[in-house]
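Section 5: illustrative case.
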């Protein structure tokens, strides 16, 4: 399951919902998100943007 430091969900009405430090799963009907606040299941999504900071190797 992918991890994102920041996950932005763009809904069909062009509103945005932002989550931080989450795991997520894209599913046929939308997206499932697991955060500190619990599990979220969204079906009215247009697109998502997921960002993850990578640790630099020394």
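Designed sequence:
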């Amino acid at each position: 399951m992918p991890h994102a430091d920041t996950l932005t969900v763009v809904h069909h009405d062009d509103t945005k919902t932002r989550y931080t430090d989450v795991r997520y799963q894209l599913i046929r009907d939308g997206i499932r998100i697991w955060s500190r606040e619990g599990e979220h299941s969204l079906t009215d999504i247009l697109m998502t943007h997921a960002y993850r900071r990578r640790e630099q190797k020394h």
